[in-house]
Design brief:
24% of the residues lie in helices and 44% in strands. The protein is α+β, with helices and mostly antiparallel strands. The radius of gyration is 20 Å and the shape is globular.
Length: 165
């Protein structure tokens, strides 16, 4: 059955291998932790990004998907102003404190405890933290739209075929 699915080249083998890793992942199906008990470690902000102050950041990677396309982390920082590059799509949930975020177009928003915000991958923002902020970050590696469409359609097809096995 697999040889029928794989007719067409290397990309299909790679995708099937990725699907098998996800399907055969031996880790727990649910991974949970209390934010209060996670051990955050130093996660320095690049010095060239710092615009003002001496912000000290710490983080803890809580989880990552088996295919490494998504992860969840807890991150905190003390006071300071800095630029931040979002290499991946990132959705944040503010747990404590607040931050003023200015996007590439100059629009500033204040995020406070309980707020959710989305940052598109491949963009910059300026973070101004007056005292302290702590967030949960949900990060996802974006694919180019055409590639994503092809990959998602193909993986759906492969999953349907695997379900028949």
């Amino acid at each position: 059955m697999i040889s029928k699915i794989l007719v067409g080249g290397t990309i299909f083998i790679t995708l099937l291998t990725t699907l098998e890793v996800v399907k055969n992942d031996t880790g727990p199906s649910v991974h949970s932790s209390s934010v209060d008990t996670l051990e955050l470690t130093s996660a320095p902000i690049k010095p060239v990004w710092i615009l003002e102050g001496n912000p000290e950041a710490r983080s803890h990677e809580h989880s990552a998907s088996a295919d490494l396309s998504a992860s969840t982390a807890v991150w905190e920082s003390t006071a300071g102003t800095f630029r931040w590059y979002f290499g991946w799509d990132e959705t944040v949930y503010i747990l404590e404190g607040d931050v003023d975020v200015t996007d590439e177009d100059g629009k500033t928003i204040k995020l406070v405890k309980g707020d959710i915000a989305y940052f598109r991958g491949g963009t910059w923002a300026t973070w101004k933290i007056d005292h302290y902020v702590k967030k949960v970050a949900f990060m996802r590696r974006p694919l180019p739209k055409q590639t994503a469409s092809l990959v998602y359609r193909f993986t759906d097809f492969v999953r349907r075929q695997l379900d028949k096995l």
